[in-house]
Design goal:
129 residues; elongated
Length: 129
């Protein structure tokens, strides 16, 4: 009868050893899986995320256009008001930057019309003779 408690302690130690070995083996499997799978899964996840972002930006085009028009108009008004308050001409660089912003905004508005013409020109110049 004195042997029984010793056998129970041995069974407990064996159970702990088995549980530790299983935990180490499963952690190793997870580490190897992450190491091998992550290089394949990460680009796919990044592409899916960027596709969602592009779709969201495509849906925001209308509001972004309105916001851009408001900002360009507000900038011109700000320069005009400050010029009137100080009774001085705006700096040449200020006028240059605002003109560039206005021209870029007009180009962005006209892009659907300009795109087909530009692509046609590029297609004819890119063909080898």
């Amino acid at each position: 009868m004195t042997d029984l408690p010793v056998e129970r302690d041995a069974d407990r130690n064996n159970g702990r050893k088995i549980a530790t070995a299983a935990a180490v083996a499963s952690a190793g499997a997870v580490a190897c899986g992450v190491c091998c799978v992550l290089p394949f899964a990460l680009p796919a996840a990044a592409l899916a995320g960027s596709g969602g972002l592009l779709a969201w930006l495509g849906g925001a085009k209308f509001w972004a256009t309105i916001l851009a028009a408001g900002l360009v108009l507000a900038a011109w008004m700000w320069v005009a008001v400050r010029s009137a308050q100080t009774k001085r001409r705006p700096a040449g660089l200020t006028l240059t930057v605002l003109t560039a912003a206005t021209l870029l905004f007009i180009a962005a508005l006209a892009w659907p019309i300009l795109e087909s013409s530009l692509l046609a020109v590029l297609a004819t110049t890119a063909r080898p003779s």
